[in-house]
Amino acid sequence: MSLTAERDTRSGAVLTVTVLSAVVLITAIAPLATDMYVPAFPLVARDLDAGASEVQLTLTTFFVGMALGQLLGGPVSDRTGRRRPLLVSLAVLTLASALCAFSPSIGLLMLARLVQGFSGGWAMVIARSVVVDLTSGARLVRTLNLVSGIAGVAPIAGPLVGAAVLQLSHWRVSFWIVAALAALMVVTVALGVPETLRRPGTPPRWSGQVLRNRAFTAYLVVFAFSMGTIFAYVATSAFVLQSMNGLSPVMYSVDFAVNAVGLTVATLIAARLADRVPTRTVVGVGLIATAVAGVALLAGAVWFGMPLPVALAGFFVLMTAQGFIGPNAGALASAQVPDHPGTGSALLGFLQWCMAGVVAPLAGLGGERTAVPMAAIVLALTTFSLLALNTCQKGSLPCVES
Questions:
Q1: In this predicted model, what pLDDT tens digit does every residue of 26-41 receive, in sequence order?
Q2: Domain, as residue range, for 336
Q3: Alpha helix locations (H) across 274-371?
Q4: Using 50, 70 and 90 to split pLDDT, how confident is the model at 321?
Q5: Please, what is the Cα angle at 238 between 237 and 244, to 5 degrees?
Q6: Are 326 and 271 members of one domain?
Q7: Could you tell me if 133 and 339 are in contact, meaning their C-beta atoms sit under 8 angstroms apart?
Q8: What is the DSSP letter of 204?
Q9: 7 backbone dihedrals φ, ψ, rounded to 5°
Q10: Hey, which residues does 6 pair with through a beta bridge?
């Protein structure tokens, strides 16, 4: 049976091309709503008479909203179903994005971004739950990798679209684009996404029942730490490549896009491997590659002042490896809690964005002087991830394989 026509015999729903397309678009919300907007920071500060730190807070409030929306949206959808909460969240996302475009002050923009992130996170966690409802085993791994791979185009296209918007129009148009996409998703879900929850029930109190599943918690750690590794790179790569090595902004953007392509290709390769190679093995290979990159980056930072070839190669391997880790660890975690897919997805999304918020400032402690904090954090996260993965050996904890 093909991926896009797989039927869940328990609920009668089908993973059609329309459903899969909706999931991909919803998954792309965060990078699109962020990457299109970041290049306009100086213009936003000028137009709204705000300081740089105030404009940066609009990014922080978005991520806070994303984390909270995912934490709350998953359990609610486990209790009430997927379709109605998804439609409501997408409608709110449309209105919040329009409010961002209209905002006359930085304070209102912060509030609108908080609501935008909350509704977007709510929609994203339900979209992931829809996939868990309709697939299992190797098909679940393959589908989540496919979704991540296609949605991974957003971080590549986002800055380019944002730059084009600034060249041709006003920064507020970026928010109108997000609003239009959210409105399109409302129509798509209303017409083409059925209810997929087979049996609404009461979610575990404060997610405790899910977290007591040791295998789920182990894969949760690997999944979240992969996001931490990505944001350690995001927070420091501009300083390492531009300030420390003299790369121009254009060349830095090219390298950033190349690394994003590497990550996207890796997720698509992982999707093809789902029926052929044990998923834990793919995750393990990704972690080993990350460790090698981390060691190279740390050595380059400590003893050689981070030469450009080491930085370029290390960052490429680091980011490409995450394509083998994050989506697969997330799929393995979701497979451990099939009775509470929304709550499991909520915890995955919440910890993912919390980790991003914590790691980014820590990795940036070196500023323009040294990349040692970034490399040390990468190695620490990878070490803990390997230990967590090791606890899921066959015979000790449940381990879903292809």
A1: 888 777 777 677 667 6
A2: 206-390
A3: 279-303, 308-336, 341-363
A4: very high
A5: 90
A6: yes
A7: no
A8: P
A9: -110, 135
A10: 15
Residue 202: DSSP 8-state: P
Contacts of 378 (CB under 8 A, 6+ apart): 229, 232, 233, 290, 293, 294, 297, 298, 318
Q: Which contiguous run of DSSP H or E holds residue 11?
A: none
Contact 297, 318 (CB under 8 A): yes
Kindly state whether residue 398 falls inside one of the protein's structural domains.
Answer: no
Q: Which two tokens stand for residue 244?
A: 């420390």
The total number of structural domains in the chain stands at: 2
The verdict on 71 and 93 lying in the same domain is yes
* Cross-strand bridge partners of residue 7: 14
CB atoms within 10 A of CB 384: 14
Exposure class string for 14-45: b at 16+ Cβ within 10 A, else e: ebbeebbbbbbbbbbbbbbbbbbbebbbeebb
Predicted structure pTM score = 0.73
3-state secondary structure of 13: coil
Rounded to whole angstroms, how far apart are CA atoms 329 and 77? 22
Q: Which residue has the tokens 């989506």?
A: 327
- Cα–Cα distance, 244 to 46 (Å, whole number): 29
Q: How far apart are CA 5 and CA 8, in angstroms?
A: 10
pLDDT mean over 78-88: 87
Element (H, E) at 275: none
Q: For the chain, what is the mean pLDDT?
A: 81
pLDDT 10s digits, 258-298 = 888 898 899 889 888 877 888 889 999 999 999 999 999 99
What CATH number does the domain containing 51 carry?
Answer: 1.20.1250.20
Do 140 and 218 have their domain in common? no
Q: What is the identity of the amino acid at 352?
A: Q
